[in-house]
Amino acid sequence: MNNKAPMACHLLCKVIDFFGDIGVAWRIAKQLQVDFNVEVHLLIDDLMTAQKLIPSLDISIKKQTIEEIIIWHCDFSEHSVTLPSPPAFVFNLFNIDLPKAYKDLIQFKKSKYIAIEYLSAEAWVDNFHLKPSIDPESGLIKTFFYPGFTSQTGGLIREKDLFIKRKAFGDIQRQKFIQSLGGDPKLFSISLFYYPKQKIEVFLDIVDRLGKPIQFFIPQYLFDLLKLKNLYQFIQVIPYPFLKHDDFDELLWSCDLNFVRGEDSWIRAIWAGKPFIWQPYIQENNIHLIKLKAFLKRYCEGCDQDLSEVLIKMHDDWSNNKFNEVLWHSFFKLQPQLEAFALNQSHHYFKEPSFVESLVDYCSET
Ligand code: TRH
Q1: Residue 15 Cα, ligand 1 centroid: separation in angstroms?
Q2: What is the residue-wise DSSP string for 104-166?
Q3: Residue 131 CB partners (closer than 8 Å, separation 6+)
Q4: Pairing of strands 214-219, 188-192
Q5: Average of per-residue pLDDT values in the chain
Q6: Which band of pLDDT confidence, cut at 50, 70 and 90, is reported for residue 1?
Q7: Residues with catalytic annotation?
Q8: What pLDDT digit, counting tens, does each position of 72-109 carry?
Q9: Cα–Cα distance, 125 to 18 (Å, whole number)
Q10: Is the CB of residue 20 below 6 angstroms from any atom belonging to ligand 1?
Q11: Is 242 in the pocket of ligand 1 (CB under 6 A)?
């Protein structure tokens, strides 16, 4: 950034479901402000869900500042007139429909209007990144900005100090963190973050039959949905309260295998450098399985065949609610190599663009 006045932006976040909309929005907002000194106005429609990720949020207030992010409670419905006048940049997270009055303000203020899209590893993303589109009615120009896994995209969300923090998180910190959740640092640890449709009781029964002492860390709200039939012989299921972003990272860094989902925890699992199983957000016509296949093809490039076979089969099973005891024996046999591969991949993707940095650089050039 040169010595011009700090950049100011609106970042729009409509909470569709689950936590990813606000999870990604909060992460982008924080990095814009901390790493690039951007004046961030985060416009959110659902403060209740946002409060999960931003515990100090007061859901009764229309406008408040938290950790130097100015948070507005807004209504994004078509005829809404509650959105504040936009500054130089408008970032529409996940390209939501906007009220006409606000689109008129974007045009009137000549704000640079950018639609931030969902993350996908599919090859077509490279060709759509930075492409403009013109609204046929109003003539409003919108530029698509895609996160991604290549230098032809905006890259993955990665804070400047992430790897320094991960490196500083040594075994002492890991032991303390596991103990703080009520776990035993000596046990093989698996974090479970999945969509509620998962037949998780069946999965836990099968893993218990492996006869290995394993502890599972599971969010309290998912644990409360469990119908645990019996006490387990070898495994332990430990619920944990909803963690703030930095602590969620430490959970992923502390575990030996992470089950993640959606978009944001998926990226964090890649950065954790530990083996992970990603469950894509479930979409109609199994579109999410196409996204999964595209990711695994890219992620397993250059990987030993026996490792990629296990990773692909474990992902396939997990996204299709299938559980295969034999496969788990293969996983444990290859676990050291899988861990080394995951760590290498985290360094490999570290070399790709960092999403927020790409966004700021692009805005600085326009
Ligand atoms: O909750 P998700 O399934 O969100 C989904 C996806 O983002 C999907 O792409 C989107 O279309 C859909 O929402 C609407 O999974 P995700 O993306 O991992 O977001 C979860 C957020 O919650 C993430 O920021 C991590 C955070 N989290 C914590 O901070 N602490 C926790 O304890 C847990 C369990 C999650």
Answers
A1: 11
A2: HHHHHHT-EEEEEPPP---TTHHHHTT-EEE-TTT--EEEEE---SSTTS--B---TTHHHHH
A3: 143, 144
A4: parallel
A5: 95
A6: very low
A7: 21, 263
A8: 999 999 999 989 999 999 999 999 999 999 999 999 99
A9: 24
A10: yes
A11: yes
